[in-house]
Amino acid sequence: MDKKEFFKYAKENNIIKLCEMADQYDIDVDLFFDDDYLERNVLHIAASRGFLDMVKIAIEKYGVNINGTDICELRAIDYADENGHYNVVEYLLQNGIMDNLKEDSKFLTSKFPEVKLFSKSINSYEDLYNFSIENNEEFWRTLALNRLEWFKEFDKVNNGLDFNDYENYEHKWFINGKINVSVNCVDRHYKKNPNKTAVIWDKDEPGTEQYVTYSELYKLMNKFSNMIRHFNVKKGDSVIIYLPTSLYAIAAMLACARIGAVHSVVFGGFSSESLASRIQNCQAKIVITSNQGVRGGRFIEFKQTVDTAIETCPFVEHVLVYKRTDNPFQVNKDKDIIIDDIIDTFPDECEPEIMDSNDPLFILFTSGSTGKPKGLVHSNAGYLLQASLTQQLVFNYDCEKDVFGCLADIGWITGHSYVVYGTLCNGGTTVLFESTPTYPDPSRYWQTVERLKINQLYLAPTAIRLLIKHGDEWLKKHDKSSLKCLGSVGEPINVEAWNWFYEKVGEKRCKIADTWWQTETGAHCITPLPCGSNDILKPGMAMRPFFGIQLALMDQNGNESDTKHIEGMLCIKKPWPSMAMTVFGDDQRFKETYLKPYRGYFFTGDGAFFDNDGHIKITGRVDDVMNVSGHRIGTAEIENILSEHPDVAESAVVGVPHELTGEAVFAYIVLKETQKSEQEIFKQLKNLVKKKIASHAIPNTILVTPNLPKTRSGKIMRRILRKIASNQIEDLGDLSTISESNVIEEIIQSFRSMSSK
């Protein structure tokens, strides 16, 4: 290719392709700079593609101000950062780019254009964080007005209440604003870009994915909305969604939001009794389910579970059934409606309900330390704003072109915030993953990344540890070059898993967002990203509070601690928009669980410590709640089930470290006199827990012991039991309050006897 052909190709076709050819075929890059048109574009194109050698030649040949302007340099850094080419970013910064600006400024304005609207000058990450705390109302007001679409704008940002007067606390944000979540997630993007892909449903069988545009999602959502209204569901009514991770699950959620119904999505792994308790708690008029689910090559009997559950729920008027498979199932003619038979009879236009900012959007149940799951209620406006804001900023998400791969089940808060509401509110493309990490083999995630060209991958540490065990050869078979950012969610990630994720999956070029948040918080509260351009990431640490979030560590005396490297109770100082409003039907429980333990603070139930740099590490639960594979389970919830067994006199459950699942369930039981063998009882207990709760709650270990250690007031000393189960027998701590000291030695002997087998 001579010089004339070279320039002709560049101008008539695609400069990006030209850059790729130059890099691939070693074309003399000096040719670029013999023509003004190419000269003005090559730097940021090379930077966006990560061609460092080409970037170096451009800088060396023309310095930091090509054509006397810094625009090319600003774009170069921006494009390199967007596409994860941090070696290029580092080179540009080290060579004097943007000397006339603070380094963070361009990063902030490109992803956070609202900084131009704030009353103070924002030139760095630290400036923005400090502004979000010191000017909290202005910060959230500006974002809400510019990121959400309103029927009527709000009068006040919030009601001015804090956590000090917790008895009278009421969570109210964007007061008197009128909004509809479905309009923000679908309508406005449908009008702007109807043919853009909204959802990629990656079904259980690889290669059978379904692409759904905003136009198609809009029509399906409206048909669903009209169908639900037809069955007498009105604004404020509760709807249970018990569906596999599927397109109809998203349609059902959005349809509820559109007509003002309050949805409660129940994880498909829960038993019929767990499902029944949730239906009863929210008094749902209808249940939306499927005949079966398909996961990991297996059929899951959703409809059978619903049939058993509603035997104790006579108030349920209808069960709407989506046929996920062609397999036959039992139809109850009095209640069952087959969605597939009627959905296309409803119009694909539906007027959205005008909702108040603080009307409930959904109820999501999470385990508590008392044994009874809590139905946490989230709002319309505050929740949506913070879910969408964090989805974009934490993952450096390009709303126009990126494919967001949060591979969580929609039955959990991660699925709500980052599969459905956050990504769709931003007008993005979200992946709906139906399968498992190892089906049909341990390369499934990497197949999916390559096939769908995923740019951000958001996983639980349990999945990462599982895939580490299968070895690196499954990774090497697939192209992961589309990845720009990685995320970890659900539990603290250990350093080994973090390093493998960074080095093997992200190929040392993708930043990792180790996110901390909860069902209660609604959205990310602690995350290393976004950050200043020169800030480092620390393996296994969530590190920094997100904008608008103030953290505190409380000591054992209930005072805020400023001591580094001492573990404390993690609390949040001030309310934030996406915080849960209450526990459904039990506001007193909400206040006693979260606001009473440390007056003036929101208690998270997690422990943490600050390092010398002020970065935070989450150490795990400090209450009687375990985290198994990212699933929160209350110890009392399992204990109540174990104690139902006729041969069990007493039980105590603790969580112990587990290399794969993070924590595992360890159960101590005291048996009555019985003729049954221990192994027979163990099998029955595990089946009982599976039936009453779910598979992830089954005890990994059951230990029979003559007695349980108790204080003189009769409280079980779980701290001691946790130490023994973790084989930390030499470090049991203070035993002065135990009522019978010989009990400890008996338990230790039982533990050692079991361990030696």
Automatic annotation (TrEMBL):
Q: What is its EC number?
A: 6.2.1.1
A GO MF label: acetate-CoA ligase activity
Q: Which residues form the Acetyl-coenzyme A synthetase N-terminal domain?
A: 125-185
Q: Which UniProt keywords apply?
A: ATP-binding, Ligase, Membrane, Nucleotide-binding, Transmembrane, Transmembrane helix
Catalytic activity from the UniProt record = acetate + ATP + CoA = acetyl-CoA + AMP + diphosphate
GO BP: acetyl-CoA biosynthetic process from acetate
**In this protein, which residues make up the domain named AMP-binding enzyme C-terminal?**
637-715
Q: Where are the transmembrane segments?
A: 239-261
**The UniProt record lists the keyword Ligase:** yes
Q: Which PROSITE patterns match?
A: AMP_BINDING
**Matches recorded under Pfam families:** ACAS_N (PF16177), AMP-binding (PF00501), AMP-binding_C (PF13193), Ank_2 (PF12796)
Occurrences of domain AMP-dependent synthetase/ligase (ranges): 187-576
Q: Which GO terms describe its cellular component?
A: mitochondrion
Family the UniProt entry places it in: Belongs to the ATP-dependent AMP-binding enzyme family.
Q: What is this protein identified as?
A: Acetyl-coenzyme A synthetase
